[in-house]
């Protein structure tokens, strides 16, 4: 178990060219610490609203996940990135996070973005309703994707399963109030659960950017802007332990 975990947030946009996106993984991983986090749908952008994502779905051992594993191994790190994964419905893939490297895991997005005029469930299928928590250097990381952030019951389920940090790759669609919602929800999930939240988004113009890391007392450790950039932060166990002593809400819960 380590007392500190270094995280790198790669706030880059994905294109409609899967090969070009794979090629960028190595550069992002080379900049990283213990965990390098790319946004949701980094393997290939969603494209125009309503467009078919089935042709861009891959297996968890396909070209994208294989490249994630290779760049993680080359840099002795762990990489987390979003892709579209084949499902039993050829026309509706999973929206999946793949983690490869020192730790390995996969999370299929539970809450599909049927909101603000979008219908993600027309193009994608939701994953199983169960928390995914993975151990990395003694830190317990709970995985979420974008719209999941609006559902506090998932973050609480992850914390009940032992999560000490929530990692949230996203493609948070831009629009009125959306940056305010993003920042508020990231901080709320950190404060109410006394966990770190590592939230990585794609940048404008289509998405909001503002990737950030928030500590268990709600302090923003680092926050990006609206350009492509790479951010670094360190999660420390003494801050986590102190937050849970100061605000023992997990101990005091009644439901």
Automatic annotation (TrEMBL):
PANTHER family: DEAMINATED GLUTATHIONE AMIDASE (PTHR23088:SF27), NITRILASE-RELATED (PTHR23088). It comes from the Bacteria. Belongs to the carbon-nitrogen hydrolase superfamily. NIT1/NIT2 family. Residues 5-237 form the CN hydrolase domain. GO terms for molecular function: hydrolase activity. Signal peptide: none annotated. It comes from Nocardioides gansuensis. Keywords: Hydrolase. The keyword Transferase does not apply. The keyword DNA-binding does not apply. It holds the Pfam family CN_hydrolase. This is Hydrolase. InterPro entries: C-N_Hydrolase, C-N_Hydrolase_sf, UPF0012_CS.
């Amino acid at each position: 178990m380590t007392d500190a975990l270094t995280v790198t947030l790669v706030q880059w946009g994905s294109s409609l060219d899967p090969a070009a996106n794979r090629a960028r993984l190595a550069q992002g991983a080379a900049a990283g610490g213990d965990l390098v986090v790319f946004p949701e749908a980094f393997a290939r952008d969603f494209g125009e609203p309503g467009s078919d994502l089935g042709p861009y779905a891959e297996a968890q051992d396909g070209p994208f996940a294989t490249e994630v594993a290779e760049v993680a191994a080359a840099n002795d790190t762990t990489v987390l990135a979003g892709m579209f994964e084949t499902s039993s419905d050829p026309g509706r893939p999973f929206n999946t996070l793949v983690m490869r490297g020192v730790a390995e895991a996969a999370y299929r997005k539970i809450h599909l973005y049927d909101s603000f005029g979008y219908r993600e469930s027309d193009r994608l299928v939701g994953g199983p309703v169960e928390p995914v928590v993975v151990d990395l250097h003694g830190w317990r990381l709970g995985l979420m994707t974008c719209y999941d952030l609006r559902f506090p019951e998932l973050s609480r389920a992850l914390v009940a399963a032992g999560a000490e940090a929530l990692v949230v790759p996203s493609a948070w669609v831009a629009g009125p109030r959306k940056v305010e919602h993003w920042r508020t929800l990231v901080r709320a999930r950190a404060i109410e659960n006394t966990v770190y939240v590592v939230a990585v988004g794609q940048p404008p113009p289509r998405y909001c950017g503002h990737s950030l890391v928030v500590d268990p007392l709600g302090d923003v450790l680092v926050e990006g802007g609206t350009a492509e950039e790479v951010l670094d932060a360190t999660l420390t166990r003494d801050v986590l332990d102190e937050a849970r002593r100061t605000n023992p809400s997990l101990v005091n819960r009644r439901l």
